[in-house]
Amino acid sequence: MNFTVVNKNISVDNVRVTDVASSAIFLVGDAETISLSSAFDTPPESLIIGPFVPLARA
């Protein structure tokens, strides 16, 4: 994905961060390059891809 940003003047007086997600970025100012990556720490045998198990009828 290519993303173009045109920066203007910015002035930040105060920042308060109360919550952070497990995957987050907080950036004030310029960055020439931001590289994103992820890791999946669940063993492959516990990953279920496909239809869900049907629920039992009551």
In terms of topology, how is this protein built?
Elements: no helix or strand
Main features:
58 residues; little secondary structure; 0% helix
> How many angstroms separate the termini?
48 Å
Helix content: under 10%
> How many individual helices?
0
Class based on secondary structure composition and strand pairing: little secondary structure
Q: Into which percentage range does the β-strand content fall? A: under 5%
Beta-strand segment tally:
0
Specify the oligomeric state: single chain
Q: Low-confidence parts, pLDDT < 50 over ≥5 residues?
A: none
Give the averaged pLDDT, no decimals.
76
Radius of gyration, rounded? 21 Å
Could you describe the largest sheet, including whether it forms a barrel? none
Please explain how this structure is put together.
This protein is mostly loops and about 60 residues long. Helices cover about 0% and strands about 0% of the residues. It contains no helices and no strands. The model has no long low-confidence stretch (mean pLDDT about 75).
Quick rundown:
This protein is mostly loops and 58 residues long. The protein is 0% helix and 0% strand. It has no helix or strand.
